[in-house]
Design a protein that fits this description.
By secondary structure, the protein is an all-alpha fold. It has three domains: 2-140, Four Helix Bundle (Hemerythrin (Met), subunit A) (Up-down Bundle), CATH 1.20.120.1810; 146-168 and 175-200; 235-324, Arc Repressor Mutant, subunit A (Orthogonal Bundle). 65% of the residues lie in helices and 0% in strands. The protein is built from 15 helices and no strands. Helix 13 (261-271) packs across helix 15. The protein is elongated and about 90 Å long. The N and C termini lie far apart (89 Å).
Length: 327
């Protein structure tokens, strides 16, 4: 395999470097600063291979690592890469770079191709080409950072096609029935479809008018911001949470007072400090073994839990008595 990789180095260099004339002559590659139409014209000059010739070249490369054979196998399939890459023009990426990534996938396919299995290189290479291009698209889309599972990738690359099939490309936000249909076809959850749709749709102004009838304004549906839900807690919830936090803090302080100074210091150092102090440090400070520090910590923690449970029980009894007392 190392011989194969060595043999393909000149081909990789040729496909990736369009700045060197010799490399371009070996295997022209798309240059983002050059003419794509000229590149497409140039790759048509490489002849297509007959099945027997392709088989012999693949066997020669597999056996001897021949650079010449690898070069012919790669260049004869550059048109296949270009055709597949054109299907990814809708993602807003430079098509020359997309083709370059597809060429990398093609070279990996040539490296791994086994002609004895009985199928043509194009059939095998198309999977490597698509995989390489799709990985590049996912890396390049800043909005798609979590689409890494097989289901997410399938959703990412098929959502636009399915929207076209159900005539939802220009229909604004997907309606519930469309979301359900797409989720069922791709085997994903409906919330995943909505999440991916939001990321692929790009940013929208909060002042953009909603379509359809409604109770807001002359546009019929108001603006997007009219339907935003405030997820922050309401004042009543904030007061309850703050009161509960203060109660727990008071109970903790009361329970800590039941510990002796050494227990309180060790428990604070081990459980209430970030990062916690090590047993080694505390053993030197208190001039005892690390096992002794561990025992004191465990005992102090049990005493603290018991004291807090007792204090909370007393607090609950006071609340119940206060609520049941006559006014």
């Amino acid at each position: 395999m190392s011989d194969k990789k060595t043999a393909l180095k000149p081909v990789k260099k040729a496909v990736k470097s369009a700045s060197k004339s010799k490399a371009v002559a070996l295997a022209p590659a798309p240059n983002p600063e050059g003419s794509l139409s000229r590149y497409l014209t140039d790759i048509r000059k490489f002849p297509m291979l007959e099945a027997q010739e392709e088989f012999e070249l693949a066997k020669d490369y597999a056996k001897s690592g021949s650079t010449k054979s690898a070069h012919k196998l790669v260049t004869s399939h550059l048109r296949l890469v270009a055709k597949i890459a054109m299907g990814y023009r809708g993602y807003g990426l430079p098509i020359g770079e997309v083709i370059s990534e597809g060429n990398v996938g093609l070279m990996r396919a040539v490296q791994k191709f086994d002609p004895d299995r009985g199928f043509r290189l194009a059939t095998y290479a198309m999977w490597w080409i698509r995989a390489s291009i799709q990985e590049y698209v996912l890396r390049s889309w800043s909005l798609v950072k979590i689409g890494t599972t097989a289901a997410q990738k399938k959703l990412f690359f098929n959502l636009r096609r399915l929207k076209g099939e159900i005539n939802a490309i220009d229909g604004g936000t997907l309606n519930p029935s469309q979301v359900s249909d797409i989720a069922e076809r791709l085997g994903v959850r409906e919330d995943e479809v909505m999440s991916m749709e939001g990321r692929l749709s790009g940013d929208q102004s909060l002042n953009a008018p909603l379509r359809g009838g409604g109770d807001y304004g002359e546009e019929g549906g108001g603006e997007w911001q009219d339907w935003l839900e405030d997820e922050s807690p309401d004042p009543e919830t904030q007061i309850v949470e703050e009161d509960e936090t203060n109660t727990r803090r008071a109970v903790l302080m009361q329970a800590m007072a039941t510990l002796n100074p050494r227990e309180r210091e060790i428990l604070t150092a081990r459980r209430l400090t970030d990062p916690p102090e090590t047993l080694e440090v505390l053993s030197h400070r208190h001039e005892v073994s690390r096992e002794r520090i561990r025992q004191i910590e465990a005992r102090a923690f049990e005493k603290l839990k018991a004291a807090m449970a007792s204090a909370m029980a007393s607090e609950n009894e006071l609340i119940i008595d206060g609520e049941s007392a006559p006014h």
